[in-house]
Amino acid sequence: MEYNTQRSQIVIPEYGRNIHKMINHAFTIEDRDERNNVAHSIVKVMGQVKPQFKEADDFVQRLWDHMIIISDFKLDVDSPYPYPEKEELLKKPGKMKYPSSRIRFRHYGKAIENFIEKAMAMDDGEEKDSFTYYIANVMKKNYLMYNRDSVSNQLIYDQLSTLSDGKLELKDTFTLQRTSELITRSKPSQSKGTQKRSNSTNYKKGKKTFHKNNR
Q1: pTM of the model as a whole
Q2: What beta strand segments (E) does 78-198 contain?
Q3: 90-100, pLDDT tens digit by residue?
């Protein structure tokens, strides 16, 4: 019995050992034309093994590249594509750059600061007011994820003012969503009060502005 520990290493396990054996067999074929024909057959079988690759634009090239990689770049065939560069594949990826800017309130994250900058750049009017109201509600929701007990609306107003250097304020007609609405998935109240309908409309307008600004 032959154990896997006694067998040669599989370079790309997704293709299985039989594909690797077929590629190793191609090395033994001395006639170049025959070896090329075998290589094309191997690529077809590889495509059947990995049909999900067909969605990619470079489907066929990827199969040829994988066959060359499995052969340790030593299979001498007339590939319709340039051979992949071994040095390029073995090269270590560069270090990722992490944001170095300071976040004043970590529980809101950098995204809220970006939203506030966009709101500050908007012209005064209903759209800016609705977007500011939307931001304030997201701030309250994020704060409650950080501290689920409670948060006063005044604290959100103060921190919105701090983050915007006093340039963004909510109109007196705006009331933030209740804590229970932000931290639960229960159905909204059926109350049809004028103030609640107005807040809901402004929230939807702000959300629409958010999506428009982030396209």
Answers
A1: 0.46
A2: none
A3: 888 788 777 66
